[in-house]
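User: Predict the structure for this protein chain, please.
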Amino acid sequence: MCGIVGYIGPKNPVEICLAGLKKVEYRGYDSAGIGGVENGKIEILKEVGKVAELEKKVAQADLHLEVAIAQTRWATHGKVTKANAHPHFDTHRTLALVHNGIIENHETLRRTLQSEGVKFLTETDTEVIAHLISKFYTGDFRKAVQHAVAELQGSYAFAVVHEKHPDQIIAVTEDMPLVVSLGQKEAFICSDPNVYATHTRDVVYLEAGEIAVVQAGQLTLYNGQAEKIDHKVQTIDAQENEISKGQFSHYTLKEIHEQPQSIRNAILSRFIESEGTALFEGLSFETSDLLEVQRILVLGCGTSFHAGVVASYLLEEMARIPVEVEISSEYRYKNPVVSPGTLVIAISQSGETADTLAAVKELKAKGAKILALCNVQGSNLARIADGVLYLRAGLEIGVCSTKAFTSQVVVLALFALMMARMRHLGKAEGQTFLKAVKELPDQIQRILDLTPSIQKIAKKYAHFENFFFLGRHYMFPTALEGALKLKEISYINANGYPAGEMKHGPIALINENCPTVALTANLTTYPKLLSNLMEVKARNGSVIAIAATGSDGLQEIADETIWIPPTLDPLAPILSTIATQLLAFYIALERGADIDHPRNLAKSVTVE
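Assistant: Here is the predicted structure, written as structure tokens:
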């Protein structure tokens, strides 16, 4: 959530920053602003709403800046107003500052500054930082920032410019993503390293507590003790060409339709068919380390948590390793017992999920080995983990995760296969599993080809305000994920449940105004699920079944059926999810929702 950009160099800083803001819109925001130095003065423009609204204001003002910073804000402290939008400035308007994250002690700092005569103009925690830097400024910009940072508590990243120092931007991070991209006689600052990939692919990832003095083509880095430190320039694999809707009306729809290819990318060169096993090049764990694993802890939030639940079934069933799955935002406040032989799998599409990062740091401090599953090269999670499995899903712009989820599940399935083959699983069983994995891209395409019929079902049911998603075993986390997609983009109250739990309370809500999406593709539990659906029908509930072709017994129960290709139970969540994604998309479309940018949501949850 929130996106910081900045530029210093010979090009037009305003144009560069506005272009950057457009490329971080996917992160979720409610206002946008730009500021910088012009003729020795701080100039700022900001606007509630989309970047396009800010762009109009900039054109009207004919803004010209020598150095610029900008931000898309997602409100935390303070309402969505122009005053609360970034950049913020100090009392004398000598500096401008953009900020992501939360300053946890902002109230204490605010009271202290107010007692010293400072007048606040906003409700934000960000304004505190601006006033602190101004308070400590005596001519040395970097030292003033350093003194201010020493007063701050929380997780944050910010960039600041000063009217007396138009030749530099100072950038700071404390457990929040921020990179400096270095070009020829120019430099860029951004929350996402891919934003300025067309200009340069050389980036420096700022680490916690570091202060960067950024000049045109030059970077000087300091640690928390104000000592100069070396920085490592890394070359990124740019994904710039993917920031386009192509022939599709929405990024979300484009990403749903990219899944045959994203699954191919996820499995490419990651298996040995003759041995019936998986292989991950670059996985830093030795075989002996993996053989010593006695327990696995899986961490994730939202969609990543759902992928983790699927993974727990896979790992326990195939590799016979005990698995615990935890929601990161809850786990981070536990005092966990980390027994010897514990492997932690931390899942985050962005690699920047604040709660997952906090939990991982606590676990590392307790000696646990961390395997990260993420989609972004150079992300915080990728850098602090002991090993990384990249999804290779490509840039995902839609706030509602689609291709990242299915890529997570297929990569975890291959990892489970590898762990199983190291233990007891036979080669023939492994080959059978791999054969089913390789069939997935073509099977997904066959489901995508069902779009017209799914669209008709969506049109029929789009007016309902409540839905249940039911499934058993592998289909339970699939039901959770399907319900989440419908909630996110259509604002319908959708709930995922294990079908066997309906009689323990939720069945009281079933009536003719509450359709049930039945995920029946888990063949092991199929007969039991049919019984649950009979109970739904007995209470006048409509049933939309997502079922493997050839399944018997649904004709008399389901009001609508989406037939998907049959596959092994452990892989059925991938195919069933494609159907629920399409159903959610077209219901949201019918309801006129802003599908790519759902209200109140951000792509990457980088604050608690």
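The first helix runs from residue 13 to 23.
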